[in-house]
Amino acid sequence: MLEPRDAKFKNSIITVPNVICFLRLVGSIVLFALAIASYRYWFVGLYIVLNLSDWIDGRLARWLHQRSDFGARLDSAADAVLYAALVGGALLLSWQLLQHELVWVLVGIGSYAVTTVAGLWKYGRVPSYHTYGAKATQLFVLAAGISIVLGWAVWPLRLAAVAVTLTNLEATAITFVLKEWRADVLTIFHVWPKDRRTANQD
To answer: Do 88 and 143 belong together in one domain?
Structure first.
């Protein structure tokens, strides 16, 4: 939820966090190009950098009080493009390993599709909740991406698929609870109606 100190940048497009998001969008295109060129280690290196940029822009937005609804939507869009580049690149670079794990990949993608459709259906826009679950899941996806592309093991991918699915299920639940679109909802319990929480405690 935005704080009063963020009001100055509420409708701003050009902010430090947003610039980082734009760079992540461009970097994701470069990431996919590296996969096409079969630059496996450059792919992994750039993916790590882009992943860290997602961690950095969120903290800068809070520290500089430059959070905005536009920034939240841009961040979600940049994340989606980054993960699309990761999946596409991993398929190109490690098809022999991934072809037997496609069910796990499709489960994760399918859960994201459900969350996206739910947001578009209810609010006419994609959810941008940035939950605690999403932040934790980012680490699982990072580990899975590196492991798959470098051909180490497939089990991190399976853990990541489960984490992604649970995170998206929570996001879908948040969408059904919230009456109007809102960014930066940390957990379902932050928006669960108080009267229901009280009833559940009784």
So the answer is: no
Q: What are 186's two structure tokens?
A: 């940390």
**Same domain flag for 101 and 180:** yes
Taking the C-alpha atoms of residue 92 and residue 98, their distance in angstroms, rounded to an integer, is 9
**Terminus-to-terminus CA distance in the chain, angstroms?**
29
- Tens-digit pLDDT profile for residues 16-46: 899 999 999 999 999 999 999 999 999 999 9
Q: What is the pTM for the complete model shown? A: 0.87
Contact 86, 109 (CB under 8 A): no
Q: Are residues 173 and 190 in the same domain?
A: yes
CA 155 to chain centre: 21
